[in-house]
Amino acid sequence: MTWMPSTLRDAPLPGVIKTLCQDHPEQAPPPLLHVCITCRAGQPLVAGMPVAGQLFYDAVADALAHQASPAVRLLPVTCLAACDHGCTAAIASPGKWSTLLGRLRPELAGDLLAYGAAYAASARGAVLPSRRPASLARMVLGRLPAPAAAEAAA
């Protein structure tokens, strides 16, 4: 399934991103929610047992499967290099700030998806503390500007 309307398929990439994300947000691709599946969350590695990151990913995937219209697309990632912060996830979308979240646990899977929905609804990818679940109030580890925003600031 393609998210790009045929009229934009041959347009240069920056024009596509600008058009979809600003003029037609309903046609923009869903944000990508990357969840680290190799995180051990400070626990020792036990042969044959899943690590904390895989358990968290499985919980998010299960919660996502129960949503009629998911706001995000879930993807596993092997490392987000935030090992001192427990289970981690990152959310990104063209033309928006990306966010890295940490100290996540399987019981927060639904809250992470609620955060993802707020992110998807945001024009720039900024999810204010007042708009995120209270359980995630201190889970944001960092944000990265969208590539176009970073170039404009230079």
Describe this structure in words.
The chain has 154 residues and is of the alpha+beta class. Helices cover 29% and strands 18% of the residues. It contains 4 helices and 5 strands. The chain has helices at 13-23, 52-65, 109-121, 147-153, and strands at residues 32-36, 73-77, 87-92, 98-104, 140-144. The protein has a 5-stranded mixed β-sheet with strand order 2-1-3-4-5, covered by helices on one side. A hairpin with a 5-residue loop joins β3 and β4 (98-104). The longest helix has 14 residues, at 52-65. It starts with 12 loop residues before the first helix and ends with a helix. Mean pLDDT is 84; it is low at 1-20.
What attributes characterize this protein structure?
single chain; 154 residues; five-stranded mixed sheet
Write the layout of secondary structure elements.
Layout: H1 13-23, E1 32-36, H2 52-65, E2 73-77, E3 87-92, E4 98-104, H3 109-121, E5 140-144, H4 147-153
Helix pairs in contact: 2-3
Q: What does the radius of gyration come to?
A: 16 Å
What percent of residues adopt helix (DSSP H or I)?
25-40%
* Count of DSSP-assigned helices: 4
Structural class by secondary-structure content: alpha+beta
- Which whole number gives the mean pLDDT? 84
Percentage of residues in strands: 15-25%
The stretches of 5 or more residues where confidence is low (pLDDT under 50) are 1-20
Dominant shape: globular
Give the strand order, joined by hyphens, for the main sheet. Answer: 2-1-3-4-5
Could you tell me how far the N terminus lies from the C terminus, measured between alpha carbons in angstroms?
A: 36 Å
Task: Tell me the major beta sheet.
Answer: 5 strands, mixed
Number of strands: 5
